[in-house]
Design goal:
single chain, about 140 residues, alpha+beta, 3 helices, 4 strands, about 30% helix
């Protein structure tokens, strides 16, 4: 989903719904440093989500989107997949994202794998519960 530079998620912030959020600098297995934004739920449901931004990378819209998920009980992390082609941390309006799009290849998107592997044990447990629920639903259908 592409949004205007001044856009914000359609859901207004829920006061006290999030346990907080913070910007992170993570490292992939080959040492590439990349930005991420993690938001913890104030009342966790056991669900977790990785927010994959549009072509602009870790734009403020996607940080706020991760925050909105946390406010409704879903731990979330938004990642910046341009770290290999754009070492600068600037992903604001001045970021020339289109020059990086052709350089972004599936084999270079290791940030997704790292983000998945660094999630908390509670997210792993949540995935197991979701898998069991899907299997139970398929059995009943």
């Amino acid at each position: 989903m592409c949004v205007d530079n001044d856009s914000r998620p359609p859901i207004r912030p829920i006061a006290g719904g999030s346990a907080g959020s913070r910007d992170l600098r993570l490292s992939s297995s080959d040492g590439t440093r990349f930005m991420a934004h993690a938001a913890r739920a104030g009342k966790p449901t056991g669900a977790g989500m990785v927010v994959i931004p549009d072509v602009r990378g870790l734009h403020p819209y996607y940080k706020e989107l991760a925050d909105r998920f946390a406010e409704v009980g879903i731990d979330a992390v938004a990642i910046d997949f341009f770290a290999r082609t754009a070492p600068s941390d600037d992903r604001g309006e001045s970021f020339d994202f289109m020059s990086h799009v052709p350089q972004t290849k599936p084999d270079a998107l290791q940030a997704v794998r790292l983000a998945r592997s660094s999630r908390s044990a509670s997210a792993s447990a949540a995935r197991s519960r979701i898998s069991r629920r899907r299997a139970d639903s398929a059995t009943r259908a």
